[in-house]
Give the backbone structure.
Amino acid sequence: MAYNAYNPTLESGDQGPQIHIREINDEVLDFVLSNTDLSVANALRRVMIAEVPTIAIDIVQIEKNTSVLADEFLAHRLGLIPLCSSTVDRMKYTRDCNCIQACENCTVELTLDMCCQDDDTMEVTSRNLLSNDPNVVPVLTDDNDPGILIVKLRKGQELKVNCLAKKGVAKEHAKWSPVSAVGFEYDPHNRLRHTQYWVEQDEKEEWPLSHNAPEEPEPKPGEPFDFKAEPNRFYFRVETVGSLRPEEVFLTSISVLQDKLGTMQIKLDDDGGQDEPSDMGYGANDQWENGY
Amino acid sequence: MSTVAQEPVPSVGSFGTLERKRVHENPGNQFQYPALHSLAAPHIDSFNAIFQGTDSSPSWISAALKDIPPKVVHDHLKGAKSAAYIEDSDEEDHGEQTSTNKLGNRIQFWIDSVDLTKPMANLGGDQSHIQRIYPSEARDCSTSYQGKLQAKVCWRVNHGPVLSDVCPMGYLPVMVKSNRCNTEHLSPKEHIRHREESEDFGGYFVINGNEKIVRLLIAQRRNYIMGINRPTFADRGPAYTTYGTSIRCVRPDQSSSTMTLHYLSNGVLTLRFYIDKREYLVPYMIILRALVDTSDRDVFLALARGDVENTFLTERIELLLRSFSPLGLFTQQQCLEYLGVRFHSALSLPEEYTPAQIGKELLRQCISVHVTDNQEKFNVLVAMAQKLYALVAGECSPDNADSAQNQEVLLPGQIYTGLLKENLEGYLDNILFRIRQDVSRGSRLCNFSDPVYVTRMLRRSNPDVGRKLHYFLSTGNLVSRSGLDLLQSGGFVIIAERINFLRYLAHFRCIHRGAFFAEMKTTTVRKLRPESWGFLCPVHTPDGSPCGLLNHLSYTCQVSHRTPDVSKLPGLLVSLGMSQVLHGHVSNPNHITVQLDGRVIGYCSPHLAVDIARKLRHLKVSKQHNLPLDMEIGYVPVSHGGQYPGLYLFTTPCRMVRPVKYLSSKANYDIVGSFEQVYMDIACVDEDVIPNVTTHQEYAPTYIMSVLANMTPFSDFNPSPRNMYQCQMGKQTMGTPAQALKCRSDNKLYVLQTGQTPIVRSRLHNAYAFDEYPNGTNACVAVISYTGYDMEDAMILNKSGHERGFAYGSVYKSELVDLTSQARRGGGPVTLQFGLGEMDEDSPARRTLDVDGLPFVGAHLKAGDAFYAFYDTERKRTVVKSYKGPEEGYVDSVRLLGQDDITRPLQRIKIVVRIPRAPLIGDKFSSRHGQKGVCSQKWPSVDMPFSESGVQPDVIINPHAFPSRMTIGMFVESMAAKAGAMHGNPQDCTPFQFSEDYTASEHFGEQLAKAGFNYYGNEPMYSGITGKEFEADIYFGVVYYQRLRHMVNDKFQVRSTGTINPLTRQPVKGRKRAGGIRFGEMERDSLIAHGTAYLLQDRLLHCSDYCQTHVCKLCGSIVSPVNVPSAFANPGSREFSKYKSVVECKTCATADGITVISLPYVFKYLASELGAMNIRMTLKVD
């Protein structure tokens, strides 16, 4: 899968940034990004972690909670449950929406209404969270997945909550992050000497080679150091939490990045910085920070 | 070389999560953590012994009752019917009979027995409503957990029959899990039913809802003669020297009395003892001769033990005997009478007593009280003198009172018994006092033979003994006539705070040296001494003022609590070759004494003593002859100027003992005491064993440390102060204070929401149930200086980790609302009732209040919100009380508290408010290695550095935290936990597992390498901001982090304006009153030095007591300008106006010189203060 919409003015023969996908499944996307700058690669990483919008429970209205967990604890647990967010594009941020607090354009409502009447302990899981939008439901890996345990109830304990799930990004709160971790590496043989391996005796023995090392030729002993070299192959491993497919995360991150660059381009073209300072795509940043 | 090194480090097994889950779901009848229960054993055993005796020994309280001297009153009636009272003893002669005749009828009181019931409540009057009370109910209701104390008071008139009456003595606090507690035999399952912790081990009292513990104290070893060389002794009087011997004698009821024998430079010996805190000094010879009918020759022989060659000794004995002869006391009777006459008033004995009888009673009550027989008392005194002479001659060294060898434990039960005894005796004295009053008034009703009169007297004197002990437990103050032979009168009781489980545990193991030593200027008492090896933890002591005084028992240290039957022991020793003490028989001067619990039972040669000690130990360990296992066999060898030799056997309770492996027999479980340990050959590890010398070996080197010190991972890699700090900080951690959180009503509880089990844990971790009470979180820690926010012991948190719940905690505050205390009149009918009365539907208070006047569970409270409401039926209005705050919280629970009278309407409730405490910048965290830090920044996840696999640290700490502190243990923990996390198994961090031949870094390095990491725990990392790889690789691992309870929210103090002191108009101090922080002289100096004049003016004037005032330029006074109504003003004044008042100078009588200046108000105040003293202050104003 090649991507070449970067800049047509590149030198001939250079095709711009390249992507080589090594592994892709429901949770993981492993790819090599090459022929681009470190800043672009890191920007991609940062966007994937923090700025890809997903849907997560944001407001929890507790009607009844006689379980052992405190209300805020429960609300916190609910917030961290990943929800299928493939349709997040069709949703609006509540701040951009015309409604006051919640409407179907910006909010998905989930309910949890459980009461234990058996002598056995009842396990309330994310399967018991009922959504009013069939597309936005708690993530399950397969039909046998018991769901994420929310709380255990004993006989007589009851839980009735109403959750409002909203669109958001992980910049605001980690629960909106679509990824659990993004592996990122370049220069596995340390050819660029960006780092110095600390060794007690023998570097080869003490420093295990990265699994990305076979991708690049092993440096020959006594190879001259190229001090002008720049990193240009980046090994990514994106692991999602399930709310979005890994390729969705990646593609969204590209478009988020494009949007940001586009905004900047427009602002620069517009007035050369005469007007009020551009917010560089961080439009609602202030609003977010007020929450924190 | 080392055998420890070769064997692989044992695994600590699994995390045991499933097993724990199983037990939690089905709590059985068995306690899961027996080790935990043994921690509080010294407390519980000593309380049990108060009321429960064994076959060989009576209960402490019954022994105490027996020890109370007879309480007798006479009615002084002439011609009393049953004339004479003849004492059972045959010494009574006819002359005394007539003297008792004059006294009239005689009545004697005594308490036959005391009984304490288990805590009960009577709900509703009749017997059918009596119900057991459980500790949780007492805690909930802020009452005390106490049982009913009853005493059977007996009396006898003349020779008549013994009459008795059972008197209620009030309610006595009961120790939880003791034999008077309702939870004594409950299983974990029943514990839960009664709303206790499933593994509650008791040992505390519940006083007014608080859990109180009587602190263990260090006391001088009982029944052992200590040689003392103390400079203060010489100040007692002329001829007194610094030498003395002292013995703390303990009666069967565990009360003690200390005697000191002083050596005077003129050869005289004086015995010092105390009666009711008053000091008495009595010539030694009088006591000696009063004890036994003996001659000077016998005394000489007994003291010199036939060593007539020793002129030093014989000369002194001669002086001693000569000094006695001028008194002209030749017989025992004369000596007794001599004492009796002098101690008549001190002892307050029945009037009928003759001086000789008083003398006898003195000997019984004050002299060598650990033995009853006079001959034995005599022997003890002789042994004291012998040791004293040896000490003076320099043959032996003085004993060190600060050494654990000469110490034992003062147990809660002892103090409790002592107080009970004294108060019961006080009750009898009170009865006596009232009857005497009646007798002296010649009251008509005063008739001894009338049981109604006597019982009325019994009832009339207030017998509330329970209250006295309740007072003791609630304040810790000892109100005692005798002082109980203790050096302090307060600070005996502490609250068992449940800040977290570590803190709670430590309370039961802490042992204090005594408040007396806290003020001592010398530091010798605080020293860590080798004698305390294995008994007191060398690590676990606070730093600062209580350092070394407040120690903790090692986790294996026990306190002996039995009083075994040792009557057969002297016989056994004789069969082993010891020669008995025979009266008049003189032993070989080279022989050493054999003492059993302070009784001189024989002599033997030093050579034989070695043999006896060895055989006795063998018999003891192999459980033959019924010898108690915790018996101490302390053989002190003959030395030149060392400890005074002898074979000392101890079997008494209250001694510190500990298990040690006995090597020369199959049965290898031996218990060793702190006295004998000094002279034993105990190897620590296998390498230390010397064949034919070593007799014992430690089970493990960790046995010397307390439970908490054992929890520090790899503590053998850390410098000792860091381990000390961890012992402190472990106790300040926000953790899991209790499992029965819903049933707790402590004033303040700190709860960590998602505590984890540490990956790296010591073997004791499981034994002491620390997995039940998690205390921290396993955090990914990178050691890197990143963005600078982690400098100076600050640490950076990952904001995303924080958002996912890292170190989130809450504070539970509970508030007791008692309407009876808010009512205008105490007692009387109930006028206040919870409820809203006629409150409007839309009143703002309804947001948080339900119709019953109580807040909704879960309601969000801000300062000023309605907290609860009640209706005043008298004034017909609703009173709404508001939440004081200042922090926002949620109502966690509202508990309705019952009371004894179930017919009364609800008056008391308890509201628990839960205050969320997410980690904030400024909150304190620490690893388990004394490495504390304050959160200085929460970086978003994208800005945090990351490893190649995308792992981001939860915590960043600065590398500078290590070089000076050298907490290598933290590095090892980091590696170990990283490997453990990757392999999914817990890691053992018990200290002393590794050696130079098999290092920890090797062990865990291999594991890391197997998991694909660098051998030494480093990782290449990338900057989260630029994505560039760091030049250095980063030490990155997993460390168990504790969140400490010191949080900014409890500490921050800011103010712009606010309350001021009315006198000086300066801001008040104190965080609670929103006051300012003192900007003192030194701060002022620094501003002057910096030349920041405006800042100085701002701090000290504008933000403080800026004021504008009038000054008279003519006279320069700021005191004289006063406001004068314009009507009375001087017409010549400027600004003369009809309506306004005018400021005029009183002294110049004009307003001409008045102008306004600004100055600090205190300056004006100073001027007026000076004026009051006739000092004029003038200002030069232009």
The CA atoms of residues 663 and 691 of chain B lie 10 Å apart.
